[in-house]
Amino acid sequence: MHNAPLPHDSPGTSGSSSADRRTFVSLLSGVVLGGLAWLAPILSGMAALLYPLRQKGAAGEPVRLASLDSLPADGTPRRVPVIAPRVNAWSTSEEPVGAVYLRRTGPAEVLALQVVCPHAGCTVEFQPLPSDSGGGAPGFVCPCHKALFDLEGRRLPGANPSPRDMDQLEVEIRAGDQVWVHFQNFLLGTADKVSTT
Ligand code: FES
């Protein structure tokens, strides 16, 4: 008895099936690669959306730093670390974000100065001024390139590399004696005070 060949036994049909498979694989590759090309900007956009969440609480918002009683009544500056909440999509933590000098300038008045030197970002130190620029009076001196400031944070004249005064921060006294500071960072090396936060 003669058995009729099955369709896939035909040489012509087998070649056609192989070509179909190649076409299918080619189409599938195109779809996958096209999908990846679309996915990249979407993932990038999601990262950009999540970035502010990661930064929330890092700067610009008021932070409670001290009580009035903890600051010397004679106006001597006290350096205070700034610990601020950082929030991301999954957790909240407290992290150091900088430091400020706090000075009592009245019964319920406080001056807050960024410790960062406006010249190039070193930390300014509270110490006696050199004899030729203040004669040993207390002030702020930058150890890097010797920028000098008085107790109000004003840039002293002379060969002073700082392009501006020390950066003053907004202060609020809450609940009668709690010192809150709007902590910010500023652009370095510019005469104008420009917030970077
Ligand atoms: S960084 Fe302060 S004087 Fe240069």
Please give a handful of descriptors for the protein shown.
197 residues; alpha+beta; Rieske Iron-sulfur Protein; 2 domains; 3-stranded antiparallel β-sheet; 1 helix; 10 strands; 29% strand; disordered N terminus; binds FE2/S2 (inorganic) cluster
Q: Report the portion of residues in β strands.
A: 25-35%
Q: Helical content, roughly? A: 10-25%
Largest sheet: 4 strands, antiparallel
Please report the distance between the alpha carbons of the first and last residues. 90 Å
CATH class of the largest domain: Mainly Beta
How many beta-strand segments?
10
**Based on helices, strands and strand pairing, what is the structural class?**
alpha+beta
- Low-confidence parts lasting 5 or more residues at pLDDT below 50? 1-13, 35-58
Sheet with the most strands: spatial strand order: 2-3-4-8
CATH topology of the largest domain: Rieske Iron-sulfur Protein
Principal-axis shape equals: flat
Task: Name the CATH superfamily assignment of the largest domain.
Answer: Rieske [2Fe-2S] iron-sulphur domain
* Number of continuous helical runs: 1
Reported CATH architecture of the largest domain = 3-layer Sandwich
> Which hetero ligands occur in this complex?
FE2/S2 (inorganic) cluster
Order of helices and strands: HEEEEEEEEEE
Please, what is the average pLDDT? 81
Domains (count): 2
Using the CA coordinates, give the radius of gyration. Answer: 32 Å
